[in-house]
Write a sequence for this structure.
């Protein structure tokens, strides 16, 4: 098996092993780590179809994480995908209204981030041992709602690590916030910021790029790493469930190996749909990758025009970028993002893996607020379809699907489902399609129940949970039971400029 090395999207010269890339999280130049080449599956889909989730996970992850031994990688997988998931399948498929929903929310925090953040602590601590790391690892994470809790749960009381999570104080759902601020663990800290997710993410990146801060902390025995999807150790495990879902449909006779499959993915930071793109490069016969945005439609504008603009919004009639782009707080808060960090990995490939061009575009984004691909790079995006669903369309989809089938989905999944409906209507594409269902409806009970019945808008989230249980016919997730009466343990709120000082205070520096 070929040894895969990693380098920054902004510098092809510095190459690291997979375990070192997992430890660092973000490259010193601000770029994201990418493999020197995207590997191919070395096992048949027929054999994969006979494996459980753990077996498929090993066959996929071994291709990317080549300096982990078989025993090390299998240890990480075995301990990640265990009884903390409430279904034996780990990622079951549910068929409703002509499409398959890949339920990625059966882990400890009832969101898709569990799929990768259950294993990242094991990958990281294994990497620390492999590379004889002496310092304590400090995980810095910005969250739009789901990554934070999943990362906190994954790293809580893990020896040799500490974790600080920053979230927009008024930009997550009540359940998301309660999950985070009640997190137990001697090594965890949760901090609300007076700003939005992009502010939190930018603040974290600045700390990663602050050499003086990093040197100061290293003297005290600490090194930074990331649990966001910018970490390759987050992205690789996400590739697994796309391969897995394809093999389940093969096994159940819903597809033959000659058939293509489409994936529709709700996305804000672009990591989840990038994982589907990597699955295609592995050999999964993907037809279309449908990128679904909410009202913060910066990615829709990008795929339509090749211009990524965080300051100006495209006029849908003229195609011109004229009006100011406003950050929208929506009922799908994990997608309320205007700077989609993981997109850089796709842009880098679109540029023919030209690190200098990539660095120049990212500099433009930082200084001018936008960048634009040339025609050659734009043509690279042909695998992707795109679309967005506003609040009205998202709510209507939740209501319609429930009334037609009895199946209840959360707001993020509804964005993807509504965008897929639009795509199918305009394209006539009948290819078997899987929609990534990224969160349990219990996590957004008020939004979901209000969509089904507007009278619920005046009721509180936690009061609606029992009603949701009744109409959906599903068991109340343990994650919800755990936080109903839990005490708030974290109440720190800070200005964006105070983020570094809060980290130092947490570490006692």
């Amino acid at each position: 098996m070929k040894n895969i090395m990693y380098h920054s999207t902004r510098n092809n010269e510095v190459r690291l092993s997979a375990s070192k890339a997992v430890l660092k999280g973000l490259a010193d130049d601000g770029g994201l780590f990418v493999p020197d080449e995207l590997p191919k599956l070395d096992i048949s889909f027929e054999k994969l179809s006979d494996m459980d989730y753990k077996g498929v996970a090993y066959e996929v992850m071994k291709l990317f994480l080549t300096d982990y031994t078989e025993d090390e990688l299998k240890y990480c997988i075995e301990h990640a995908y265990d009884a903390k998931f409430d279904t034996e399948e780990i990622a079951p498929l549910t068929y409703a209204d002509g499409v398959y929903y890949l339920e990625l929310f059966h882990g400890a925090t009832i969101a898709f981030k569990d799929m990768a953040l259950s294993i990242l602590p094991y990958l990281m601590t294994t990497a620390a041992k492999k590379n004889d790391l002496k310092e304590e690892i400090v995980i810095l994470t910005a969250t739009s709602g789901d990554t934070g809790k999943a990362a906190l749960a994954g790293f809580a009381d893990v020896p040799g690590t500490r974790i600080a999570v920053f979230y927009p104080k008024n930009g997550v759902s009540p359940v998301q916030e309660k999950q985070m601020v009640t997190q137990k663990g001697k090594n965890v800290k949760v901090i609300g910021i007076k700003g939005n997710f992009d502010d939190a993410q930018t603040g974290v990146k600045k700390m990663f790029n602050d050499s003086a801060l990093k040197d100061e902390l290293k003297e005290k025995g600490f090194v930074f790493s990331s649990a966001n999807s910018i970490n390759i150790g987050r992205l690789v495990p996400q590739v697994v469930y796309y391969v897995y879902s394809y093999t389940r449909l093969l096994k159940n006779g819903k597809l033959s190996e000659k058939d293509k499959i489409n994936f529709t993915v709700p996305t804000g930071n672009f990591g989840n749909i990038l994982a589907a793109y990597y699955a295609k490069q592995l050999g999964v016969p993907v037809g279309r990758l449908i990128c679904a945005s909410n009202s913060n439609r910066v990615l829709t504008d990008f795929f339509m025009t090749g211009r990524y603009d965080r300051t100006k919004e495209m006029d849908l009639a003229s195609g011109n970028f004229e009006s100011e782009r406003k950050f929208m707080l929506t009922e799908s808060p994990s997608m309320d993002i205007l700077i989609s960090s993981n997109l850089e990995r796709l842009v880098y490939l679109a540029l023919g893996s030209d690190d200098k061009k990539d660095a120049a575009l990212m500099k433009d984004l930082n200084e001018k607020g936008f960048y634009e691909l040339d025609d050659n790079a734009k043509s690279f995006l042909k695998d992707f379809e795109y679309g967005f669903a506003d609040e009205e369309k998202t709510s209507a989809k939740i209501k319609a699907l429930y009334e037609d089938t009895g199946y209840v989905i959360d707001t993020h999944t509804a964005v993807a489902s509504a965008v897929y409906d639009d795509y199918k209507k305009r394209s006539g594409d009948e290819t078997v399609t899987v929609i990534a269902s990224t969160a349990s409806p219990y996590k957004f009970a008020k939004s979901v129940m209000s969509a089904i019945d507007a009278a619920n808008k005046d009721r509180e989230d936690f009061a609606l949970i029992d009603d949701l249980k009744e109409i959906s016919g599903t068991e109340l997730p343990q994650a919800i039971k755990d936080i109903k009466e839990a005490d708030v343990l974290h109440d720190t709120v800070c200005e964006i400029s105070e983020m570094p000082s809060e980290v130092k205070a947490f570490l006692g520096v």
Notes: Residues 359 and 455 are 51 Å apart (CA to CA). DSSP finds 22 helices and 18 strands in the chain. The first helix runs from residue 18 to 24.
